[in-house]
């Protein structure tokens, strides 16, 4: 087995996340916010680092105080930031989030002139892609150039080097000029992916070709839900490249779909850990961190997914995401309190 400098390299979004302190209040009545660090690959890099992996982050930060805020936090956490360039003339992104449990969590992205979407092929070449056991990226990376080409290039380099490529599908409809473009971009990347992770909506969105498959539960595009035959979508995705697809199912846990050489698909159900939900935002990223830790450590699909579920369960009881992801000792104590794996 080759020697790696890093267990995982994470590429994509970073932001300052402003979470409402007025939990349960309608968005128009929010009086104050708490500032945390966010962005799917960034959250996963922090969560995996807290568990014990050696992680590096490839994101773009503006030459602004918000970029300083994110970089400072990551350095305190021990995430390697030297490969995350500052982008003159571009701003570090921001997200504003409301918290209205149990099922309403409105959020607004501020990603105009965004620094992380300016990642280039040169930035990828300067990063330790081939020296990382896992190269993980998010679907939002593919929404615009130059990040789209840079991400695909990074996945190509990782594949050539024998590193595992992990995709967080990360469907954010309001980041795309057309939701069908998301499907086109995702499908173009699947040939390079070993493991894909997503919810039912995200898996269906990856296969989206027709707006008749979309339904709007609210007037805003950010609330898009995508319907479809989930089993057919999973089978098609696995045919396109990945050997494993992890279907996040909320409180039911995760279903792992494994493609075998004979074309058959094996399913492994990893149940969740029941908790009282405070805030669901970031639970999927916490899952990704926990799963990657177990996977890198050779725990197997079931136990790795269960660890991911435990990390997600802890985060849904907290106010934010990256700032509240558990350490290894914390998550193992939680698992033990729930009867173990």
Question: Care to describe what's here?
Answer:
By secondary structure, the chain is of the alpha/beta class. The protein is globular and about 55 Å long. Helix 6 crosses helix 7. It has ten helices and 16 strands. Residues 216-222 have low confidence and may be disordered. Strand 15 and strand 16 form a beta hairpin. It has a single domain, classed as UDP-N-acetylmuramoyl-L-alanine:D-glutamate ligase, CATH 3.40.1190.20. It has helices spanning 40-51, 65-77, 121-125, 147-161, 179-189, 200-206, 230-239, 283-296, 301-315, 328-337, and strands spanning 6-11, 15-20, 33-38, 55-58, 61-62, 86-87, 93-97, 107-110, 132-138, 164-168, 195-199, 214-216, 224-226, 244-248, 254-259, 265-270. The strands form four sheets. The chain has an eight-stranded mixed β-sheet, sandwiched between helices.
Question: What layout of secondary structure does this protein have?
Answer:
Blueprint: E1 6-11, E2 15-20, E3 33-38, H1 40-51, E4 55-58, E5 61-62, H2 65-77, E6 86-87, E7 93-97, E8 107-110, H3 121-125, E9 132-138, H4 147-161, E10 164-168, H5 179-189, E11 195-199, H6 200-206, E12 214-216, E13 224-226, H7 230-239, E14 244-248, E15 254-259, E16 265-270, H8 283-296, H9 301-315, H10 328-337
Parallel strand pairs: 1-4, 1-9, 2-7, 5-6, 9-10, 10-11, 11-14
Antiparallel strand pairs: 2-3, 7-8, 12-13, 14-15, 15-16
């Amino acid at each position: 087995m080759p020697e790696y400098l890093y267990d995982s390299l994470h590429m994509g979004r970073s932001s300052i996340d402003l979470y409402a302190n007025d939990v349960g209040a309608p968005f128009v009545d929010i009086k104050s916010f708490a500032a945390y660090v966010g962005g799917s690959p960034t959250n996963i890099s922090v969560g995996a680092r807290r568990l014990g992996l050696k992680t590096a982050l490839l994101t773009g930060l503006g030459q602004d105080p918000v970029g300083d805020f994110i970089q400072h936090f990551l350095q305190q956490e021990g995430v390697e930031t030297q490969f995350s360039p500052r982008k003159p003339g571009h701003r570090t992104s921001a997200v504003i989030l409301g918290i209205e449990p149990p099922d309403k969590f409105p959020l607004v992205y501020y990603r105009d002139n965004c620094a992380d979407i300016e990642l280039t092929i040169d930035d990828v070449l300067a990063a330790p892609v081939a020296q990382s056991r896992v190269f993980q990226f998010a679907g939002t990376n593919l929404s615009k150039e130059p990040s789209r080409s840079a991400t695909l290039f990074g996945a190509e380099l990782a594949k050539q080097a024998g590193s595992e490529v992990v995709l967080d599908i990360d469907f954010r409809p309001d980041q795309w000029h057309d939701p069908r473009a998301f499907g086109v971009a995702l499908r173009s990347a699947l040939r390079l992916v070993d493991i894909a992770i997503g919810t039912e909506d995200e898996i269906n969105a990856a296969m989206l070709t027709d707006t008749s498959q979309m339904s709007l539960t609210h007037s805003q595009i950010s609330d898009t839900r995508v319907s479809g035959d989930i089993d057919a979508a999973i089978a098609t995705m696995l045919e396109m490249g990945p050997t494993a697809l992890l279907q996040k199912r909320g409180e039911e846990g995760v279903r792992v779909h494994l493609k075998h050489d004979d074309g058959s698909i094996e399913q492994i159900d990893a149940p969740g850990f029941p908790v009282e939900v405070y805030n669901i935002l970031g639970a999927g990223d916490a899952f990704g961190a926990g799963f990657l830790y177990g996977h890198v450590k050779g725990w197997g699909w079931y136990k790795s997914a269960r660890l991911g579920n435990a990390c997600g369960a802890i985060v849904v009881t907290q106010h934010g995401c990256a700032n509240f992801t558990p350490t290894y000792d914390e998550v193992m104590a939680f698992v033990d309190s729930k009867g173990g794996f």
